[in-house]
Amino acid sequence: MSIQLKRRLLGFCFILVLSLSVLNLPHPCSNQAVAANSAVKKKFVIGGLFAMTGSWSTLGLASAAALQLAADDLNAHFSRIGSKIEVE
Prior knowledge:
This protein is mainly α and 88 residues long. Helix content is 58%, strand content 7%. It contains three helices and two strands; from the N terminus they run ααβαβ. A two-stranded parallel ribbon has the order 1-2. Helix 1 (3-21) runs parallel beside helix 3. The two termini are 28 Å apart.
């Protein structure tokens, strides 16, 4: 599998995670952020369709790991700013 294809797929996963992270999220310094923090915890589930077996399994496993790393990074960011948002 070519490196260019791997980069494109990882880039797609990164864009997907970033686009989900900016949906309906207030700026941490705004008044909306205070109201959002007092609300119930919101959970966003992200996923992807990856080949886990066969000739494409190397890319599928790497993509699934990249998606999990992105979710972990987002959760760490949200907990740092005191947000009640969780990405799964």
